[in-house]
Structures are given as C-alpha cells and as structure tokens.
C-alpha cells in the first residue's frame, strides 16, 4: 500500500485496504475521468483518495455458463472486449464500445460510470437495468447486494459508506440492444438512451437513460408490449406503443431540453427493436 | 507524495500532489511541450500519451495513477536523429499537418491503433479518431495517410510499431 503525505493518495491492493482508507475519509478514485473534471464544476478535488486500479479482484470479468461477474474497476474497453460475442450481451457491449471516445473508454471504469453522482447520461446504467444486474458493495458494515434499480435511486446515501466492488449478471437474455442519440456522431453525452433485452420467454425489458435524472425501467411500455401478441416485437408497433405510453419527464440540460429528450424515445425504441431482431438470439 | 515512472525510457520522479494531471508534469516539469493541453476535459485528444502502451488522455490522468508505469510522449516516438515512426513519415508525405496543434495527439492515438489493427478499414480508422479533434484539416488527409501507412506495411510485410502486418 502506497500512502502520501499532503494530499493523501492510497493505491490499495486489496478491498480491505481500500475500505480502511474509506473509513478514514478517502474518496474512491477509479479511472479519474469524472473526478478530474470536478474543479471545472467548481468542486475541489478530495483531500484524500483511494485508488482501486491495483486490486486484482476488481479488475476482471468472469464469464460463467449462467452468470457474469464484472469487477468495478474494469474499463469500458476491457468490458466490450471480454463480452464481445457473448449471446444476450450485445447491448452491454454496444454501450461499452459506444460511450465517450476510445481514449476515455480505455480508462473509465464500470464502477465510475455508475457512481458518478448526478450524471444522468451514463451509458451503462440503462443496459444494466435491462440485464437486471445486482450491484455488490462493500460497506462499513460488511458486504451488501442490491438490485441496480435500488442502487441507482439510493446511491447518494449508499456510497457515503461503501465501495462498489462487482456487478453480477444472470445470463437470461437471448438478445439485447443499446441505442443512444448523441447530437454529433461522437464526443457528446447522449441526449437519450434506450436499452432493450428479450428473455427466453420472449418477454421484453426496456430501460431509458439520460431523459430523467436517473435511468429507469420503462415498465408501462414493457407491460403494453406483453399485453399484445408476440408481434409487438415489430419495430413500428413498438414505436406506436412507446408514443402511447411515454410517461417520462424530460430533464432540461446543456445538450437538449426535456421535451426533446422525451420526444425522441419512440424512434429510438423502433431502432432498438430493429437491432434486437438482427441479433443472433432472435434472428 | 513521490511518484516514479518511466518517461520515454528514462526514470522519472515527481514529488508533489498525486492528483496533478500528468499533462502538467510533462509540460511544466519535464518541458515536453509536444503534449498539448487544450480542452483539459478528455474531449479533444491533443494531450494523448501512451501509458503502458495504451493511448490515453493525460489531462485526466492523475500522476498518482502512473506510479510504476511506462509513459511515452510524442518526443519518445523518435528523437531528432532517429527515423520517424512510419505514421509520422506518412503524415509528412501526405502534407496532412496544418497548424499542428492536434498532431502529437493524433500520432499517439493512431500509432497505437495501427500497431493493434494492421488490417483496419477506413471506417475503423475513422472510429479510432473520434477522440482526436482537428480544427484545420477536415480529417480526410489524415485518414488517407493512416490507410497508406497500413497499406505500405502490409505490402512490405513489415511491422508498424512492433506488430507484424
Ligand atoms: C470526454 C468524455 C466523454 C464522455 N462521454 C460519456 C458517454 O458518452 N457516456 C457515458 O456514460 N459517460 C461518458 N463520460 C463519462 C465517463 O463515462 C465517466 O466519466 C466514467 O465512467 C467515470 O469512470 P471513472 O473510472 O473515470 O471514474 P472516476 O472519475 O474515478 O470516479 C467517478 C465517481 O465515482 C466514484 N467511484 C468510482 N468508482 C467507484 C467504486 N467502485 N465505488 C464507489 N465509488 C466509486 C468516485 O469517487 C467518483 O465520485 C465521458 C467522459 C469524458 C471525459
Ligand atoms: S486536453 Fe486532454 S483531451 Fe483535450
Ligand atoms: S492541424 Fe490544426 S488542429 Fe489539426
């Protein structure tokens, strides 16, 4: 463990060392692509940080026959590479390979993407909602497992006393897709993100990111699609249902106003269903 | 805190704030001003360097994270009396460089890309460049030069930065 005087910098080599530093008040430093821009947002860098990059247990992706475990310090680039070709994870791969730009993707981690508080446009959030991911935390009181939806809602409180260590995924999707709308082809945060997945019983899961402050499942649309015949997996029909069941309150932001974020959802659903139908699992 | 790392093949030691962006140490302490600090937000790519052979923005890299790593900057790609990297040769031959502000970053991003992707297509070259913004060239000449570099290496059965193509 390397610790500095002045600003305290701890490069932890185990989760226990990282938690010890957390208990002393150190903030978690992953890739730094969010935190290093804090001064530009008028926020001082933390007086003490604990870096996770030397903890081997947090830097690997384990792929089992019915389960995938992603370490919180895995970068977007590694995630995309490791899951490439894994059936059902097309959406997660697209999110990891489509966010930001190549240089950032080599550095920015899964944990950092989910723990950047007040970041509404995180690409991994909606697709992990569709995967019904479980977030594993190490808290001051011990380990804790939590559904991704609850984690996203409560992360402000949770992260005051915790480190995200791993993300657990079941392999129960046969196909998934991740559709994002940036204003330019690259470099922008997406205006809106729609992630979709289909399970073995052809039930569709849909989540939306960047439209509201926190990503969430689109349950009204999921229910409407389940109520209809299996042909609801038709892009045009899905877009009609999305228009009818659009219950989002768009947030106003630098890239776009709220009404626009909300309005682009039906065409994104249409693209998403078309992408789902092209994946191996449904083709 | 003391941070030690390899910088262009030589030992480098930094004593100070471990959250200092690597780009500032390169430019202000080591006078390696080829690496540019333009946006300081990860968007433009002008500050790209190699850390353990990966092309990453140095403006968002706290120096504490490079402890024990090997850092290469544009100055480390070739010193004055050595041959240029084949990509640099092609940029020069295609007259692709205009004001030059973006080029150290372009070379660092794309040299790692050609090393790892010897059979890259034109769209793949473009996808690799999305984090490197150029305000002068309109990009097509840069893409031409990268494609030409890969083509030459393939024809000659040569290495571009270590990988046989
Ligand atoms: C140019 C640029 C473009 C971008 N474009 C996109 C984009 O298109 N889509 C997108 O989704 N994102 C985008 N981002 C944001 C980027 O994805 C996030 O900055 C990144 O995922 C954060 O990861 P990091 O590892 O760098 O986190 P850090 O900056 O290290 O940390 C971010 C926050 O999370 C906390 N944290 C990190 N890991 C943990 C953990 N394991 N447990 C508890 N807390 C933790 C830190 O304390 C900090 O508060 C972009 C960023 C840049 C610079
Ligand atoms: S200065 Fe680092 S990406 Fe622009
Ligand atoms: S040559 Fe001027 S910015 Fe690229």
For CATH, the homologous superfamily of the domain at 173-280 in chain A is named as: CO dehydrogenase flavoprotein, C-terminal domain
Q: Could you report the average pLDDT of chain B, rounded to the nearest whole number?
A: 94
CATH homologous superfamily descriptor of the largest domain in chain B: Beta-grasp domain
The CATH class of the domain at 173-280 in chain A is identified as: Alpha Beta
Largest sheet of chain A: 5 strands, antiparallel
The second-level CATH architecture of the domain at 173-280 in chain A is 2-Layer Sandwich
Binned, the helix content of chain B reads 25-40%
According to CATH, the fold-level topology of the domain at 173-280 in chain A is: Enolase-like, domain 1
Strand order of the largest sheet of chain A: 4-5-8-6-7
Structural domain tally of chain B: 2
User: Unreliable segments of chain B (pLDDT under 50, ≥5 consecutive)?
Assistant: none
The side-by-side strand order for the widest beta sheet of chain B comes to 2-1-5-3-4
Number of helices of chain A: 11
The outline of chain B comes out as globular
Please name the defining characteristics of this protein.
heterodimer; A: 283 residues; alpha+beta; Enolase-like, domain 1; five-stranded antiparallel β-sheet; four-stranded antiparallel β-sheet; 11 helices; 12 strands; globular; B: 165 residues; Ubiquitin-like (UB roll); DNA polymerase, domain 1; 2 domains; five-stranded mixed β-sheet; two-stranded antiparallel ribbon; 7 strands; 33% helix; binds flavin-adenine dinucleotide; binds FE2/S2 (inorganic) cluster
